[in-house]
Amino acid sequence: MKTQDTTDGEFEVMCEINMIPFIDVSLVLLIIFMVMTPFLVKSQIKIDLPKAKTSEQTKTSNTMITVQVAKDGAVFFEGQPVQAAAVEGTLKRMLLDPERQPVMIEADKDVPFQFVVAVMDIAKKIGAIKMGVSVKQDVGKR
Q: What is the pLDDT of residue 29?
C-alpha cells in the first residue's frame, strides 16, 4: 500500500492497483504467441515425406515458398490451408519474383502423384523456374 502526504501533514491510504507490471507481462505473452503460432500451425500438418538415399540438404531462404500436399490431397501454403480452386491465385500472390524465388513442394509419400504434378503445373504456368520436391534422407544401409 502506498501512502500519500496530504496538505495538512497527515498520510492518506491509496488503494490502487499498479497495472504496469500486468501490462508488461501481457505484452510479453502476446509477443511470444505471435512468434510461436506459425511454427505450431506448420507442425500440425501430418505429412510423411518419402525417403531418398541421394537427397541433399538445401539452404532454406526467407523467400522460398513451401507448398504442402497432405495424404488426402489438401494443399497448404506456409501451413495455411487453401481450397483447390484458390491454389493458383494464392501462389500468384506469394510468388513475387518467379525467376528467383524457389517453390518447395512437400508431398506425403502416399499422395497420388497427380496432386504433385498439378501444383508443379500451376507453379510453372505462373512462371516459377526453381522448383523442388522435399524428401527425407534415408539413413539406411547404402
A: 94
Residue 90 to residues 23, 68, 83: CA-CA distances in angstroms? 37, 13, 10
Report percent pLDDT > 90 for the chain: 8
**Which residue, among 109, 116, 136, 137, has the nearest Cα to 67 in the 3D structure?**
116
Task: Read off the C-alpha cell for 73.
Answer: 490431397
- pTM score: 0.56
Average pLDDT score over residue span 126-141: 74
Burial 14-28 (b: 16+ CB within 10 A, else e): eeeeeeeeeeeeeee
Please give the pLDDT value at position 68: 87
CB under 8 Å to 11, separation ≥6 — which residues? 3, 4, 5
Cβ–Cβ < 8 Å for 86, 77: no
The beta strands (E) that lie in the chain are given as: 2-5, 11-14, 51-52, 65-69, 75-77, 80-82, 103-107, 131-133, 136-137
Domains, in order of start, for the chain: 2-43 (no CATH), 51-137 (3.30.420.270)
C-alpha cell at 124: 510453372
